[in-house]
Design a protein that fits this description.
The chain has 470 residues and is an alpha+beta fold. It has 2 domains: 205 residues, Chloramphenicol Acetyltransferase, CATH 3.30.559.10; 241 residues, 2-Layer Sandwich (Chloramphenicol Acetyltransferase). 38% of the residues lie in helices and 24% in strands. The strands form 4 sheets. Strands 1-13-3-8-7-2-6 form a 7-stranded mixed β-sheet, sandwiched between helices. The protein has a 4-stranded mixed β-sheet with strand order 9-15-14-12. It has a two-stranded antiparallel sheet with strand order 4-5. Helix 3 crosses helix 5, helix 8 crosses helix 13 and helix 9 crosses helix 13. The longest helix is centred in the last third of the chain and has 24 residues. The radius of gyration is 23 Å and the shape is globular. GO terms for molecular function: acyltransferase activity; phosphopantetheine binding.
Amino acid sequence: MKLTEISQYDARTGYVSEWRLHPSTLAAAEEAGIDSRSPSYLQEAHVRTAAMNRQRGVEEPTWLATAFDISGGADPDALEMAFRSWIDRHETLRSGFRESDGELLRFTLETERIALQRVEIGDFADQEELHRYLEDRFDESTDPLDWPCYLFVTVDHEEATTVYMAFDHTNVDGYSISLIAHEIQELYRAAAVGDRAQLLDVGSYVDFADAERARAAELDTDHEDVRRWREFVVGADWQLPAFPLDLGLAPQDSVIMPRQSGLCEWLLDPAEADDFEAACKEGGSNFFSGILAATGIAACELGDQDVYRTLVPFHTRSQPQWWASMGWYVGLAPVELPATQAGDFHAFATRARETVRSVKSMAEVPVARVCELLGVLLRPVFLVSYIDGRLVPGADRWDEWNAHAFGKVSRGDGVFMWINRTQDGVYVTARYPATELGHKNVLRFLARTGEILTTVAQDGDYVPLLAGPR
């Protein structure tokens, strides 16, 4: 499963239908009372940013989506039952927000209030036209200021029914997106034959968000992880790490962020990935720390830096009930790797492994709570993420299902890199400012990272082209 822009997906044309929440469900949401459970920090920040942008007249669609095939064509009744069962299964999809006197208040519907309607759109014979339709409808239907902020679409064609499911970020993270194909396939199978779906029991992200708030409220500036966050930013003029190369951005004299571009490229084939992992293990590290070492060496070589600084996302699915739950289970932790202590690749990777272990607990503290406690605004503008997608339930059938993931970010001045390992190898999806220099330097950075990865895979090591202690 690759994460790309939807225009890069080989969408098969056919008869399009939308699956929307029924008007009776929308009416029930309008009448729903207040749910006392709080939004997560990520949810609140996302919704408030969207509201602020709307006040400024700026629309910035940001969504995550997935597509997969149900072979032979889906039975509409069984598929509707699968969709309803899935919404029942994940409470966050039945929950939304209203603002009242500056406070973001939650409402949540019971499972029996969920009903769907199928709306037939018509036949699409042109792939480009289908791409435009899907992107436009996802832009319209994933507004975090509306509810629901998700949409399901099916395309019936000769070989199969392709299912598209798009969401605002308040409902899902990247890992959630990778779970969906397996869950809907299993719920559809069970509905079609009258069986019970064989899926893991899950908890509710709504409960997680409320518990996260309660835990965060107990923190103060003396907490070890808060102190470490302060130490990380105080020496950098209270700023989070930036991409190490010039992006060609003019000084911000406007609240409107620059347009973003994206790319998706393979870094290693399956055999190279195995060889890279073996080299990392032999050198005393692991695959993730090896990825960090490669990006860190590239940053120091190309950016002429003494220290590699970035942010790394960690999942916050710390208990079994969250493992297969839909939600935004992500925290950030800072990574700092001095180039002067690097030596060869393995010394850098070992240092990265030690650093990752030491900072992981910092991801349990929401960055927004850190900002509250320190009285500063910290805005992430550079991160490197890694997920081993081979471990996701159903990953061994992604090719069979033609499973794919999509993301859209319209504007931003940051560089965000998601490095994913699948059965087909290792690839990177990146978002960055759509400037000429931004495109050039992000490509340079990724090319050097790829060179380091393949050299380690082939030769077992890499000697950084660093000038030594400076």
